[in-house]
Amino acid sequence: MAKLLAARSPRAVHLESDWFFRFIRSGYLEPWEAEAHDQNTAVMRAVAGAAAAYAEAGYFTIIDGIVSPGWFLEPLRGWLHAAGHTVAYAILRPPLDDCVSSAVGRESSRLADRSIIERLWHDFADLGPWERHVITNGTASPEETAEALSERLRIGALNA
């Protein structure tokens, strides 16, 4: 979705947060492990810094990653607001089986364990006030989902 959304803007950056974890060459911990909190904080701060730099240069900047309200949404949003940027937040929620088959089918994914995918999916199952940011995209085409996302961004329905 991020690629499709970025293609709709004349100046856009698709910032994949997973790449920032791959930059760690020693001392890496899987992000879902409890001991990874300090690492994850450093990575998300770096993501926020890069996103802010692109936004300051006039790019519509999309951070693409697993940013759960229970984990790093608040600090990420705080860092971006402190840098003077508005933040929108969208959660794409395909059916669990779609997530599992997509992740398990990736050759290079560290995230190919069904139990981890299920745990992460359930982290986004009951979001309370953040539920209004969900786009359920199980039956919609990628283009239809991108259109729904674009429209909700346009009217400010995803502002965080």
Summarize the structure.
The protein has 160 residues and is mainly α. The protein is built from seven helices and four strands, in the order H-E-H-H-E-H-E-H-H-E-H.
Which keywords apply here?
160 residues, mainly alpha, two-stranded parallel sheet, two-stranded parallel ribbon, 4 strands, 46% helix
Structure description:
It is built from 7 helices and 4 strands; from the N terminus they run H-E-H-H-E-H-E-H-H-E-H. The protein is mainly alpha-helical and 160 residues long. The strands form 2 sheets. The chain has a two-stranded parallel sheet. The mean pLDDT is 90.
Helix/strand/pairing class, anyone? mainly alpha
Task: Kindly report the CATH topology.
Answer: Rossmann fold
First-to-last CA distance: 19 Å
- What's the count of strands? 4
Gyration radius over CA: 16 Å
- CATH superfamily descriptor: P-loop containing nucleotide triphosphate hydrolases
Give the number of domains. 1
Number of helices: 7
> Spatial order of the strands in the main sheet?
1-2
Low-confidence stretches: none
What fraction of residues sit in β-strands? 5-15%
Helix share, percent: 40-55%
CATH class division? Alpha Beta
